[in-house]
Model the fold of this input.
Amino acid sequence: MATRDHQGRHVIAVTGIGCVTSLGRGVEDNWRELVAGRSGVRRIKRFPTDGMSTTIAGLIDFDIGADAVADRTLTERLAHVAAREAVENAGLGRVGDFPGPLFMAVPPVEYNWDERRAIYDHTPPGPGAVYDRLIAGARHNTSGVGYFPFGRIADTVADSFGTKGLPIAVQTACASGATAIQIAFETLRRGDAEAALVVGTEGFLHEEAVIRFSLLSALSTANEFPEKAAKPFSGNRDGFVMGEGAAALILEDYDAARARGAEIYAIIRGCGEKADDFHRTRSKPDASAIIGAIRRAVDDAGLSPEAIQYVNAHGTGTEENDKMEAFALTSVFGEHMKSIPVSSNKSIVGHTLTAAGALEAVFSILTIRNSVLPPTINYEVPDPDIQLDVVPNVARPARAEIVLSNSFGFGGQNVSLIFAAEPA
Done:
């Protein structure tokens, strides 16, 4: 008899996970460092930081292996590393012949300063302004330096892993990783596929990105002690710390996974999405869209608010975001919020932007499997306006079988996911 959820839809399992962050390569290394509370934030050495107000980040500054992909971008290499681990530990198909579509969160389509300079230098002179030469060089890619990251990365990963159908590439700012999971989840739940590869990846930490976020006054400037800079929910927080990384998940129809004897890492119980158009970077002051996303996820999962046992927070460490998320959680869960622990992985790995929702989904699943809540490190000065149990500084053994994972992005992109242990 087919297994169905409360609305008669297919139940979707996670049967493979993979990740790489500034903590290291692979699920095992990342989980060990995460629960130990060891920060992956360090000084930037990739480029000169003289005169910059922020000189720290959660960088991938170690060898990720030649088996990743022979390509020029770190973002693409990271995607391959995470996807390979997920496919291999799922035991579903093989690299080069995966029996399902690809859903991928990738960074925005844009050229960085060095890429624009290279396009300009390699485009033959002709009539028109500098801008016209840049557009011509990008359009025709005559020198090979024009590299459109948005679609190209998903195409390359799809080719390498042999996924089926056209790859779906999404970009919803810092909610992108969660959005990719949401779309894949809904596709499988409708029965349009039996399996999917989902990847979120971010490796575009460069001078221009740091300066852009600095101009928004969004980044921490606590450079003296990098490992202490990310302070989500703390009274002395001063902004987020940029990070790099990738995560991949194999989503599969629960019955199909059970039939082949697959290991079930977790079940996806529900998802909720609600966007607002208040501002390009800020959320509505009443947090209505964030509240709506969380409530929709709980309703979609067929749960009561009291069923949630742990929240993997978006928790960036910016003044407004942390207060907005705390207000939204309290609005949805009321008095029950006093008994729900909440922690932010960004205190340890930094904010991995496009990859964050996928990475935090992997960490949420590991929380369920290991009955350990990762800490929010650097919590030394409580914020009297944020009354949350943030699992301060030290990991906590605790049973958490139903977990809410939040992802909120610029432009009012809000996605919440609910993961649960496999039904008994």
Remarks:
- The radius of gyration is 21 Å.
- The mean pLDDT is 90.
